[in-house]
Amino acid sequence: MPTPDNGPAQGAVDLISNLRQLNGTFAAREQKVADFVSAHLEEISGMTIAELAGAVGVSTPTVVRFCRSMGCDGFREFKLRLAQNLAVSLQYLAPSHRDVSEGGAGAVDQVLGALYATVNVMRQQIVPERMDAAVQALTEAGQIVVAGVGGGSTMVAQEAANRMFRLGIPAVAVSDSYLLQMRAATLGTNDVLLLVSTSGAADEVVSAAGIAGGYGATVVAITRPGSRLAQEATIAIEADLPEDPDILKPTASRYAHLVIVDALAMSVAQARSEATTENLRRIRASLTAYHGRTGPQPLGD
Amino acid sequence: MPTPDNGPAQGAVDLISNLRQLNGTFAAREQKVADFVSAHLEEISGMTIAELAGAVGVSTPTVVRFCRSMGCDGFREFKLRLAQNLAVSLQYLAPSHRDVSEGGAGAVDQVLGALYATVNVMRQQIVPERMDAAVQALTEAGQIVVAGVGGGSTMVAQEAANRMFRLGIPAVAVSDSYLLQMRAATLGTNDVLLLVSTSGAADEVVSAAGIAGGYGATVVAITRPGSRLAQEATIAIEADLPEDPDILKPTASRYAHLVIVDALAMSVAQARSEATTENLRRIRASLTAYHGRTGPQPLGD
DNA sequence: CTGAATATGTACCTCAATTACAAAACGGGG
DNA sequence: CCCCGTTTTGTAATTGAGGTACATATTCAG
Asked: Which of A94, A104, A151, B228 has its CA 20 to 30 A from that of A139?
């Protein structure tokens, strides 16, 4: 994992998400600091520790301790990482307050803001073991059926099928509900049903998951934690994503799902290429054993 | 635009570009500092002024003077702004060095790294006027035909068509080459042909652009700057995106294109809803003029 | 109600950043 | 070639920020 072992102060983990997540677990005065920081994110990096302590009404060591609680080495590092985090996800701070209608690049910034926010939240929730399990199931799959419900998810499903298919694994995307049930029923052991659903509550996917699972297929679901689909799935890749209430905005969760699909596809590609290499090695080894030569073989690779 | 009118010290000006630009105009020893900073961008923000001065072989005031020459208030501000500038394009610097095969969340981080890098580069290149022009053309379009070539682009095209269609504008996505030429030929003034192509060199899209343009349709192209397609298009939304040479990795430019499409769709949605509101206002105004009442109208909105 | 554990503040210390000033290098006339 | 003004650079001192040790207050279990 690159995140932990990156340089220090390199802002690997998203401080702001971290802050939200730890909210409530702080000691009383530290919580006051947290509140102030949340409310004045942008100003912090220009403040001295004394100014901040003064503004909050606590002593400077409390501020230092707060920084430590946040996983930083001290106030210095905290300021730096906060500044870096803000530079990347600046737009996220005031998603709805800003005036979209200013035109030009304003809309792009809005979309980017939602994208950053969603994707950062998603990253935090990824369970590596689940990913590994999903990759293994997909790598060894005889065939894969992908389905998604809701506007964005169908696109993601389509893309997932495309990518898997390119890796030489028979894969189809299904968007029709009835067809999905039928496809699900044709799956057996070693096959994978990959379902994408933000809510995880739609009857069609839940029922498809049940059917496929009943026939021994592995059901991989990208969905909301604890949803019906998550419970029904063999491997649940869960992400609870914030949705912007503004209906004009596109659902940013599409991006998060796409990232997961891309990551899965990339890992599968890698696993398969390694398997291929391993096969080649075996072929070569057996050839060597057969005619006793150890030099480079003209055939076999 | 959020970037310029943010608080102070918020890294409004790009320090790194500034550094390149001022290169050569520095006094001798300051130039040495500049060289060192250029070569060790990432480490600087973790260094003390004494360490930096020592590493370069100059005195600390020289470093301070260098910072002043760069337009900063002192070394502190310089470090901070540099860190912010770097945070935005950090991942782009060492994309392939990372080890993918570690499994787990490693793949997700890789995809995210490519995503951030691509999307930030794209954001930098967006020309607001082009976006506005595209939005206007799309808003007033009688019908829209969308097409994309290459694996990722078809998905983007599909999505664009879906979103525009939901806004009540007749829109279709075409992936078949011949069909595209035919569709292009049916377009007229007020219609829009939206083309998505990373390279902008594929004959099919260039020819389609020519045909549609010949019949008076507006051709909006999301593509590489200076490409054949960009030249042929009425409105070219240009982005020169870095592609990772690793073929196992997904093409991150899809994300950038999707963001552009989302931004366009959102702006169009807004423009249309404003048009609707404007229409309502006119109706109400005329009604008011008609029977002279100024109180709230039961009808009209 | 008491004592341990935890939370918070006071006072001090260290060291980083900055400034003031002096020395050195440079450059153009006499 | 030397002198004087300007610019560049370094030394030493100053300021103040960040961090630490320890004392005090608070909380909660028994």
From this structure: A151
Could you give the angle at the alpha carbon of A236 between the alpha carbons of A234 and A241, nearest 5°?
160
Residues 6+ apart with CB under 8 A from B64: B49, B74, B75
Q: Which of A84, A108, A135 lies closest to B259 in CB terms? A: A108
pLDDT digits (tens, 9 = 90+) for A126-158: 888 999 999 999 999 999 999 988 767 888 998
Task: Please state, for a pLDDT cut of 90, what percent of chain B lies above it.
Answer: 34
Q: What does the pLDDT read at residue A184?
A: 94
Does pLDDT of B12 surpass 60? no
**Domains parsed from chain B with CATH numbers:** 15-90 (1.10.10.10), 126-274 (3.40.50.10490)
Q: Give me the numbers of helices (H) and strands (E) for chain B, helices first please.
A: 13, 5
Q: Which of B45, B100, B259 sits opposite A9 (nearest CB)?
A: B45
Cβ proximity of A249 and A119 under 8 Å: no
Compare all CA atoms of chain A with the CA of B110 and give the residue at the minimum distance: A263
* pLDDT, mean of residues B87-94: 50
Nucleotide nearest to A59 (CA to C1'): C9
Per-residue pLDDT band at B292 (split at 50, 70, 90): very low
Q: Are A173 and B155 in contact (CB under 8 A)?
A: no
Residue B70, SS3 per DSSP: coil
Predicted local confidence at residue B89, as pLDDT: 53
Q: Are B19 and B37 in contact (CB under 8 A)?
A: yes
Residue with tokens 């298009």: B233
> Which residue's entry shows tokens 């800003």?
A98
How is the beta sheet containing A171-174 ordered, strand by strand?
A171-174, A144-148, A192-197, A218-223, A235-238
- Residue B126 pLDDT: 87
Contact A202, A192 (CB under 8 A): no
Q: Is the pLDDT of residue A263 over 50?
A: yes
